[in-house]
TrEMBL record:
It comes from the Bacteria. Keywords: Signal. It comes from Nocardia terrae. The keyword Signal applies. InterPro entries: Beta-lactam/transpept-like. Residues 1-33 form the signal peptide. This is Serine hydrolase.
């Protein structure tokens, strides 16, 4: 962590200090530093002007995630909150380094239907099962989000239960131990795993999704799927598609009762010290798909603005 912030960083620290506690709560695995460590860190930060008029840096700051350098993490959270306050609807964002590490999660949208984002682990499962026969089908399912192609991938894995097992195995391999593909184990599930496009009804939290994304490039034979994520059709290149070098997949659909759209997306973004995994979601109060993608653009551009502050990672093998 940085202990000699520039004046601009100090301003970001002062502006965002009040958000440090909220950010720390949303960070998976963040631990509060011991009191002695917090005290020494406070001594090392040299504020501008009369120090008696400035608040003492919070000891929570010492436990902020290693994905950021202090005080940039607080500034990122502050900028996210500023953006969120301008958006008419719910949004969520999760970020972590590729290969694993601390996760930062922000916003009030945390869980929902996967929609077409589940086609990524589905494509990987199908390509492992039949790499030659399913290549063009996987390409259509990922780059154009073709539902018929995705259904072919699903059928290639066996019956509904076998297909769900295969996709869940990919998720478990990437460290997602909770996602229930096709809601097979949920009594209130509206779809059975043998029904058309049942995989799209999977509930996938942002936290589980960004964990999966952080391990995706490290999985055996995943390169073929990740490369397809860099070839998304322009009409679906909103959100993370606005960032140079992004590899991503989106998903969207209307609520059965209200007809209002939710749009979500996850992907990999290059940084100077390795790629980061990002997961986004937007649910506008208007219910409009266009409003949702506009919100996704703004979330992605916020991430892009803070890429110099983000710490990426690499696969360990």
């Amino acid at each position: 962590m940085s202990t000699d912030p520039t004046p601009a960083c100090r301003r970001g620290f002062a502006r965002g200090l009040a958000l440090a506690a909220a950010l720390a709560v949303s960070v998976c695995g963040a631990n509060l530093a011991a009191g002695h460590h917090a005290s020494s860190q406070a001594d090392e930060i040299k504020p501008v002007g009369d120090s008696s008029t400035l608040p003492t840096p919070s000891p929570i700051a010492a436990g902020l995630p290693q994905i950021f350098a202090l005080p940039k993490s607080v500034e990122f959270a502050a900028d996210f909150t500023d953006l969120q306050n301008t958006l008419d609807g719910r949004v969520g964002l999760a970020v972590m380094p590729v290969g694993g590490g601390d996760m930062v999660q922000l916003g009030d949208w945390k869980d929902g239907i996967a929609w077409s984002t589940i086609k990524v682990p589905l494509a990987l499962a199908a390509l492992r099962h039949d790499p030659q026969g399913m290549r063009s089908t996987a390409e259509a399912a990922i780059t154009y989000s073709d539902n018929d192609a995705a259904q072919e991938l699903w059928i290639s894995l066996g019956n509904g239960s076998q297909a769900a097992d295969a996709v869940e195995a990919v998720l478990r391999e990437a460290g997602d131990v909770t996602t229930d593909v096709a809601a097979r184990h949920t009594k209130l599930a509206a779809l059975e795993s043998d029904d058309l496009l049942a995989f799209g009804a999977t509930e996938w939290s942002l936290a589980d999704q960004v964990h999966f994304a952080s391990r995706l490039p490290c999985l055996p034979r995943a390169n073929s799927v990740v490369s397809l994520m860099s070839e998304i059709t322009p009409s679906q290149s909103w959100g993370l598609g606005r960032l140079i070098g992004a590899e991503f997949k989106g998903g969207w659909g209307p609520d059965d009762d209200t007809g209002k759209y939710t749009v979500r997306q996850f992907g990999l973004i290059p940084t100077l010290n390795g790629p980061i995994a990002v997961a986004l979601a937007a649910e506008p109060n208007s219910g409009s798909f266009d409003d949702a993608t506009d919100m996704m653009d703004k979330l992605a551009l916020l991430v892009g603005d803070h890429l110099p502050d983000l710490r990426g990672g690499l696969c360990s093998h």
